[in-house]
Amino acid sequence: MGTAPPPFGGSGAETPGRQSMAFYIAALAHALVPAVLIIVLWTATLPAPDKPRRSGLARGVCAGALVGALAILLAIARTAETAGNTGLQVAGFVTNAATLMLLALNVRSLRLVEETGTPILARFTPILAAVEIAQGLFAAWNATVNHGLSATDVVNTDLIVNCTAILFGAALLAILALQLAKVARMAGRGPAATALAVVLVLALAVGSGQTMLGLLRLDQIGVTAERITYVARLSVIEPWQVYIDLGLTLLLILVAFRRRFRIGVTEDRIERRLRIARALTQSRWRRGLAGATALLLAILAFQDLYASRPPTLSEAIGMQADGKDEIRIPIERVKDGNLHRFAYISSAGHRVRFFLINRYDEAHIDIGVVFDACMVCGDGGYIQHGDEVICVPCNVRMFRPSIGKSGGCNPIPLPHTVEDGTIVIAASSLEKGARHFTEVVDVEVTDPVTGQKLTSGKAPFQHEAGGRTYFFGDKDSYDKFRADPDAYLRGGKQREHG
């Protein structure tokens, strides 16, 4: 009998792809950390006469938030995520290029003044803030648009936790901005300008790739091998952008520490207390920025290296057909409500996965028997979380009672019968389902004409007959079999596999 010893079929209690708090914080960080660094470091590099008023900078940030929100609403209303993202990417690219040019003039101490006497750099800063914030907010929304805050339309724990994560992430970025502004001034204009130049060059590189990708998707430019290669190479840099930016922040902290205020020696007690207070204040800013940066790096590393990994399937127990070309699985062994996964090696070497699950409870047994694949997403497989069975590729969730019904992302039903408390699956049904699976393993097979032992992956010829795949060592035996398959199959099953 084709059964296996306990544990039978493996429980499907895998961890599903539900998004954690870290996902939303990491999405905000990836989208907005470059914007925060560009805005803050830009203001830190400006000489005192060119610095904008705080009210002007605040207006720029608010305007950026408003533009970003309007762009999101417009993208939702017209389902134009690509167009909205590309438009803001173009605006960001132009603004960053202008910022880099003005930074070069600023470093060379060339002051640009309007006829009214107002420094142009002071006018430019709110525009820079508006564009960076708008682009960052839209990028954050675009990264999370396919991940709902909650699976239901009512207030529940998921909604509260995820909204809290967004608020916490926004607060953490605000703290990062305030502390970086102080530390950048401690480090000096030179180091701040150098860090800003690196951030801008990185943003321009990533932005150019995103812009070209958007234009390709919108059919505004033609698709060529060179453009695809350019986008692909720059897409490798994008995930590392936030880590490089935060690494520059840590370097600025180190520079600020080396240039920290020295208390020195003085006999004036009041002066000494003032110096101590100043040194302590600077130390608090440095430690605060280091803590915020380290926390962001920890959250990003957790999300990118661990939490974002796709869920893994439980082990599939290998099964072989019995003398009747059938696989038999006792219901008693799979009635516990867990997902029990099995695998069968087809005649062509395809690893055909299928699973059994009790759709109700042990008092009302109704076993769903299905392939571990769906017609929409392929053979990515399914995992179980409580009473839900989840399609791994698309994260669609379905309740256990629906398993065994065809349609949508439901697993493909597997024909079977029930005999004396046993699920009976014909090997021919599994052979027919092999086309749904891409994993192929090498198995030992026999040439039905010559009896030669072969490996399926190295056999030069193969032919399908009667729902099975047969392998041949040379063209002569292949031609003989094709001419009269029945002459070589009357003696019984010719294929063997391990």
UniProtKB/TrEMBL annotation:
> In what residue span(s) does the YHS domain sit?
445-489
Name assigned to this protein:
DUF2318 domain-containing protein
* Record key words, sorted: Membrane, Transmembrane, Transmembrane helix
Q: Which organism is it from?
A: Telmatospirillum siberiense
Indicate the segments forming the Membrane iron-sulfur containing protein FtrD-like domain, all copies: 334-437
- Chain segments annotated as transmembrane: 21-44, 56-76, 88-108, 120-139, 159-181, 193-213, 240-257, 288-306
Q: Which Pfam families match?
A: FtrD-like (PF10080), YHS (PF04945)
Taxonomy-wise, where does this protein's organism fall, top ranks first?
Bacteria, Pseudomonadati, Pseudomonadota, Alphaproteobacteria, Rhodospirillales
